[in-house]
Amino acid sequence: MMRSTRSMRSTRSSINDSLIIMPPKKITLTDIQKYELCLHAQNNKKNRTQYVDWVEQKWGVRVNESTITRILQSKDKRLTEEVTKPEAKRHKAVNVPELELALKEFVLCYQNKTILSDAILIEKAKLLANELEVPQGTLQVSFSHF
Question: Is 128 exposed, middle or buried (0-12, 13-18, 19+ CB in 10 A)?
Answer without folding.
Answer: buried
